[in-house]
Amino acid sequence: FLAYAERILKIHDEAISAFSYKGLHGSIIFGSPEDYLSAFFPALLKSFGTMYPDVEIKVVSAPTVELRTLINARQVDLALVSTPNPGDAPDVVRRESLVWVGSRPTLELYDFGDTVPLALAASNAIDHKGAREAMTRAGLRNKIAYASNSLAGLIAVARSGLA
């Protein structure tokens, strides 16, 4: 009976160890849009890496639409994505408003003539759609001067004053 009890306790201890944070190993693939990577991921990665030092962390940078596809295909384990309707999301981590950015502290719409040039993420991005809808609601003519999922590219265009 004692040998049987010792075996049960050993198996119990192995099970507890397997599910403890310190025993966690393997790899995880995090997905995030590029702008979230620079803003939110350093702290997240530091915290995760400290809690799970034996887990290899892989990061995939892609727009939300692509990340949702990768999640559904099980090519990404966990993703931080955007949604226009927070009620549709299982877990809301952050809420933020759409903001306009320009090359100078103050820009007047008449600086651009009758058509406002825009630098936006690719057309399937949530912020692209939101910006175009806001321009339409305001009755402002606009054109896409630059579209890209590259945050660095969008910043460069904004700094140049072209959009």
Tell me what the structure shows:
The chain is α/β, with parallel strands linked by helices. It has 2 domains: about 1-90, Periplasmic binding protein-like II (D-Maltodextrin-Binding Protein, domain 2, 3-Layer(aba) Sandwich); about 110-160, no CATH class. It contains 6 helices and 5 strands; from the N terminus they run H-E-H-H-E-H-E-E-H-E-H. Helix 5 links the parallel strand 4 and strand 5 (about 140-145).
Spatial extent as radius of gyration: 23 Å
CATH topology-level name of the largest domain: D-Maltodextrin-Binding Protein, domain 2
| H/I helix tally | 6
Give me the side-by-side strand order of the main sheet: 2-1-3
Instruction: Work out the count of structural domains.
Output: 2
Helices and strands, with pairings:
Blueprint: H1 2-19, E1 26-32, H2 34-39, H3 41-51, E2 55-61, H4 64-72, E3 78-79, E4 116-120, H5 126-137, E5 142-147, H6 151-160
Parallel strand pairs: 1-2, 1-3, 4-5
Question: How is this structure best summarized?
Answer:
With about 160 residues, this protein is an alpha/beta fold. It has two domains: about 1-90, 3-Layer(aba) Sandwich (D-Maltodextrin-Binding Protein, domain 2), CATH 3.40.190.10; about 110-160, no CATH class. The chain is about 40% helix and about 15% strand.
How would you describe this structure in keywords?
163 residues; D-Maltodextrin-Binding Protein, domain 2; 2 domains; two-stranded parallel ribbon; 6 helices
